[in-house]
Structure formats: C-alpha cells, structure tokens
Amino acid sequence: MASNSCGTSRIAGCQFTLFPMSDKFVDIILGALEKVDTSKVWKNTDDVSTCVRGKIVHVFDVTEALFLHAAKTGEHVAISGTFSIGCPGDTDADSYMDESDTPLNIETSGEITQEAGCKFSLYPMGREDYMDTIYTQIDLSKHRNVEVNAAHYATRLDGDVKDIFSALQQSFDSVQKKVSHVTMTFTMSANSPSNKF
Amino acid sequence: MASNSCGTSRIAGCQFTLFPMSDKFVDIILGALEKVDTSKVWKNTDDVSTCVRGKIVHVFDVTEALFLHAAKTGEHVAISGTFSIGCPGDTDADSYMDESDTPLNIETSGEITQEAGCKFSLYPMGREDYMDTIYTQIDLSKHRNVEVNAAHYATRLDGDVKDIFSALQQSFDSVQKKVSHVTMTFTMSANSPSNKF
C-alpha cells in the first residue's frame, strides 16, 4: 500500500466510547478518568467519543484501564471503539511516539479482576488477500487465555478483561507488522444482566 | 475481489448495541424493541450485541427505528455498530432477501424528531484504491441535510437522526455498488449532557 499523504511514523490510535448503563454515568466516567494516567497519549474527547493516540502499548493500556476502572463500580458498563494504525495522513501528535514503552496503568489495572464478553473484527486495508490475514489471526487467538467463538461479522472473546485486551493487542500488533493500514473494531460488555435485550 | 466462499446474494447486516445511560436501560431497550417491527430481518441477540440481517433498506430501517424509540425516552442513549455487506461466506438467512422493499417502521420513525451526533467510518475491503473511495464518499456527504466534519479516523455528522441515517445509508449503498465487501462503523449519541467526559 502506498499513499503520498502517508506519515512516516507508526502512531496508533483508538476512537472509543465508554457506556455506563447507569444514572451515574457521568460520575463513573469521570471517576475512571481520574484513576487512569493518560500522560503518554494524545487525547481528545467530545460528546460522541474519545480518541487516544500514541504508541500501541499506551493506546491499549489507557483504553483497558478506563474500562476496568468503570467496570469496577459493579455497574453494567460497555465500551465500543476502533483501534487504527497507518491511516494515511495520520501524523498529528507524532511527539507522543517519543514516550518510553513502559505502560503507566499496568499496576492499577492488574489489581482489578473483571469478566467480560467482547466482539471484535480486524480490517486489514488496501489488500486483496485481507481475508487470509483475518482467518490466520482468528486462528491465532485460539492459543490465548480466552474463549474464542465465531460471530456474525466478528470474533467473540470471553474471559478476564486483561486477557481479552491482551489478545486484542496481540492480534492488532501482529497484523500491523504485515499490513500498513489496519483497523480493529471492538465492543466489550461487563456486568451485564443476561438476556438483556 | 474474489473468494471461493463468497455468497451469491447481497445480504447486508448490522451488528450493533444500544446503550441507554440510565438505570432503566432494560426497560428502554425492551420498550424500543416492542415498538419496532423486525419481521423483515433475521435477528439475533446476545449479551454483547444484536445482529440484524436482510436487505439494506430493512437493516437501516430497523436500526434507525430502535435508536429513535430508545432516544424518545429523553434519556442519554447511544448506539454503536458496524454495517456490513459482501462478507465472504455470509449467506445464512438468504430467505430474507425475498422480502419486499417497503420499510416497516418508516411511519412511526417519521413521527420522532431527535437530534444526534454521529461518527462513522467506511471500510471498502480488498481494494488498493480504498482511500479514493472513502474520500469521494465523504465529499458526497456534504450535499445532504446534515453537518459534516472531519474527525480522527472518522467523519462526524450532526443533525436529525433520520437525516443522519439517510446519509449513512446512501454512503453505504453507493460504495457497495462499486466494492464487493464493505463495512461501515458508526457511533451515535442523543440527549448527551455536553462535556460529558
């Protein structure tokens, strides 16, 4: 893949929204934000979603930590978003690529045990052989510490939130090494009453 | 694009989740479902998301109607999901392609006036020229009855929910005529207190 507007850096990003299904949604979101160190990522929020950008390790670290701290309240909380890397023209905030690789929230996240269900889809862009890349990756997921099932348009992962994020990050990371522009959508749900719909 | 497992039909689908930010989230979701006629789409729901599949017109009609009826409650409600068509191997429930083209919920949806903000991204798969397709489509959006702005990894649309869904459907429909496998992610938010995050 080639693009004249393609940046030289490999800045990654995640555009996501945290959804607490609770009257206290503002407090839950602000409470989670207070507990998460976002200093190694560029961050922007509006009324629809939040975007964090930087090194892959920090983008996943921050997204995971925000979800964990929100879910820790015991309320039914979900998160939905899209990870992206190599989007042509995405060079803004390249200075965040100078941060060290040490994740800032791994310790506090490590203290939280939380089960969740997740559906994710990988989209390697600009490649005619993209389905092979997807199938190879979905197969790899089976070796990880999560339950993997097929779903329409997606792969379902069940397990501990940290194991799910670890599988997501490994999938994203291994594909982006082979394909310049990759996006990965995901929706994760915790503390859901069963048969909610 | 070619795939041996590619279906011959053009069944579309949407994998989405409705997120009422309210203690009454179960009632809001069930209430919306009661008011929406889903008989022209295949439907499956679990604790993470709902999937509807059928003709493009009905997939959009049902998704829009569910969001409108949930937002009508006045609560802060969001929806996030992925529209998809031409996914290789996606032939299940082809019988729904025999339904007539008349949307079942257009009248009741028409009675609801609701402003919202939306971010969406188009992913034409398996094509090296995918960025041109995306840029052309984003340019087209400007001619519709919604405010269009650029966002990271996405295009932002603001306006009436029905106008937003109309723009989404037109974008999706025009791209899928040129590209076999297309996905389109979206997150829409209504009745949000400003600066919620």
TrEMBL record, chains A, B:
UniProt xrefs under InterPro entries: HMP/thiamine-bd (IPR015835), MTH1187/YkoF-like (IPR029756), Thiamin/HMP-bd_put_YkoF (IPR011522)
Positions bound to thiamine: L18, T50
Organism listed in the record: Lentibacillus kapialis
Highest rank taxon of the organism: Bacteria
Record protein name field: HMP/thiamine-binding protein YkoF
GO MF: thiamine binding
Gene: ykoF
A Pfam family per the record: Ykof
Domain annotation Thiamin/hydroxymethyl pyrimidine-binding YkoF putative: ranges: 11-90, 115-195
